[in-house]
Design brief:
132 residues, mainly alpha, F-box domain-containing protein
Length: 132
């Protein structure tokens, strides 16, 4: 009986392996289908980046640059990271999205880490910081 149980366990593991491979194939095909359906993914990265930059709030009349996005999940550029993989890649490869920030005081826990990550993503771009 122990040998039979061992045989069944081996068969189950083989089936699990087959299932993992099928799930991986399905995921890859779903990503490819999403890319075909996503008009942003079909654009050159430079154009998609410019479209993403338009998601940043407009500047106030006294500023001559773009507005200052708030580092919150429902505001660009963080919001763009939650759409799909291609949008995440575009947003992360666009340092200008991360070159300005509106810091609202008092800060919440974890804000320092978020700000450090934000500034790293800005790369070598000059930073514009607003305090509210």
């Amino acid at each position: 009986m122990e040998a039979q149980i061992e045989q069944i366990c081996l068969k189950i593991e083989r089936q699990k392996d087959v299932l993992r491979k099928l799930e991986s194939s399905k995921s890859l095909l779903q990503q490819q289908l999403n890319a075909l359906r996503d008009p942003i993914a079909r654009l050159p990265v430079e154009i998609a980046s410019e479209i993403f930059l338009e998601c940043i709030p407009p500047p106030s009349p006294s500023d001559n640059a773009r507005g200052y996005p708030r580092p919150q999940a429902h505001h660009a550029p963080l919001m763009l990271l939650n759409i799909c993989r291609s949008w995440t890649e575009i947003a992360l490869s666009t340092p200008a999205l991360w070159a300005s920030v509106d810091i609202v005081l008092p800060r919440t826990p974890g804000f320092q880490e978020l700000l450090e990550m934000w500034f790293r993503r800005a790369g070598n771009r000059p930073l514009q910081i607003s305090f509210a």
